[in-house]
Every structure is written in C-alpha cells, then in structure tokens.
Amino acid sequence: MIRTPEEFVAELRGLSHRYWGTHPFHQRMHAGELSRDELRTWAANRWYYQSVLPRKDAAIISNCPLPEIRRAWLDRVVYHDGRSDDGTDLDSGRERWLRLCEAVGLSRAEVLDERHVVPGVRFAVDAYVTFARTRPWLEAVASGLTEMFSGHLMQRRVADMLARYDWISRDDLAYFTDRIEAVSGEGKSTLDIVVRYSVTAQQQDAAVAALSFKCDVLWSVLDAIERAAHVRET
Ligand SMILES: O=C(O)c1cc(C(=O)O)c2c(n1)C(=O)C(=O)c1cc(C(=O)O)[nH]c1-2
Predict the structure, then answer these.
(1) Which domain holds residue 171?
(2) CATH for 105
(3) Which part of the chain is the Thiaminase-2/PQQC domain (predicted)?
(4) Per-residue pLDDT tens for 40-65?
(5) Is the pLDDT of residue 90 over 80?
C-alpha cells in the first residue's frame, strides 16, 4: 500500500539503527582506542570508497532521463574530483581524504596504488557501484540516503578524534569538517527527490530496500576493515 510522505520518510529514517555509526570499529574510534596502525588501515581502505563515489554518481547520471536531476547530481562528481588536476587542489574531496591519509602516516603512493585495500572492502564497495549502474536511477539515488544519517556521526567523529588522538589536528580532518555541511544539504535534497519521485508502493518499497542494501554495504566495509586491522596487529 502506498505510504503518505510522512510514513515513507519515517520508514526510511527508521533504518538508522542499521547505519555504520553503531559499528564496533566506529565505537572504538570514538573512544580513542584505535592504534595508529588501525587508523592507517581504516584510512587506506576507506580511500577505496571515496575514490569510487564519483563513478557511482556518474552511473546515476547516465541512467537518469531527467535533466533537472542530472544537473543537480553533477555537483557531487565535481565535489569529490575537484576542478583541477595539479595534485594541490585542496578543494576536492579526494585531496582532502589523501591529506587525512598522510596525517595518519600513509604516503600518497601507497594509498593510490590500493595495496592496503582488502578484498571485503573491494567487494562491498564494488557492489555499491554495480547497484548504481544496474538498478533504476531512483533506487540508486535512494541508496545514497545513508547521508542523512552521516552529518551527526561526522560531527561526533571530529570532536572525538580531536579529543582522543592528540597527534591529529583539525586541519587533518578537513575532509570531515568540509563534508558535514555538504552532507546535510545533499541528504535533504536526496530525500526530497526520493519522496517526490516514488509515486507507487513498489517504488517506495524499492527505495527502502535500496537504503537497507547500502547500510549493509557500509557495515561490510567496516567488518572487513576491523578484521584487517586485527590481523595486522597480531
Ligand atoms: O564519514 C561518513 O560516515 C560518511 C558516510 C557516508 C554515507 O553514509 O554514505 C558518506 C560519507 N561519509 C561521505 O563523505 C560521502 O562523500 C558520501 C557520499 C555518499 C553516497 O552514498 O553518495 N555517502 C557518503
């Protein structure tokens, strides 16, 4: 049965308990319990997620017949890739992530050649891109709704990392401080699109399933990182 917009939004928001904010690895990060090596494993593996986001968003654009959505979605590609290619463009998400990697002790080369990316992370992240390439554009957009849960988490992450890891500075966390504002805007506009274009019960069901799938992607990423960090420690 078709839900009212309020019911639909409540059901989507109701998936927040499956979000990676409560994952044990994130809890240890917030508690200041991660070693430098564990933080390096995290940063190098999450790089893989960061690096595919523009390709995921480009897949959505290529599948979407609506110019107003394509136009708006382009900003996401540019946010992560930036506008120049000189390697000093701190105005791009990818450069800010690389800066964080360097702050935790990784060289750019070892991040860019993906030598630390473990199979579970690659499988989960690739599944997200495949989802965007192969599912209807509206479902792919809905899978990005995890962003509506992420602003609050990033705020806590910045505060807790600054408080608990005294060798990390606010500048090192520029990726997150810049991103907090962007995700709250993106999360809201994504929700508006999903509510507006999901006009049948089946489309609403598919949107809920897409968000659920994405929660699984992120959870699996952290499971694999946690395992890899444990193996490196022992
Ligand atoms: O740090 C986080 O916890 C977090 C979570 C998420 C998310 O929930 O998908 C994203 C991001 N960060 C992020 O920085 C980002 O650019 C992003 C894009 C997307 C997406 O699905 O399109 N999610 C996220």
Answers:
(1) 5-233
(2) 1.20.910.10
(3) 11-223
(4) 999 999 999 999 999 999 999 999 99
(5) no
Cα separations (Å) of 232 from 38, 116, 228?
A: 8, 11, 6
Of 63, 90, 94, residue with least CA distance to 76: 94
Domains identified in the chain, total number: 1
Is the C-beta atom of 146 inside 6 A of ligand 1? yes
**In angstroms, what is the span from residue 150 Cα to ligand 1's centroid?**
7
The closest residue, in CA terms, to atom 5 on ligand 1 is 150
| 165 torsion bin: left (phi>0), alpha (psi -120 to 50), beta (else) | beta
Which of the listed residues 76, 96, 150, 180 should we mutate to test ligand 1's pocket, taking the one with most ligand atoms within 8 A of CB?
150
**3-state SS, residue 137:** helix
Task: Report the atom number in ligand 1 closest to the C-alpha of 56.
Answer: 22
Is the shortest distance between the CB of 154 and ligand 1 below 6 Å? Answer: yes
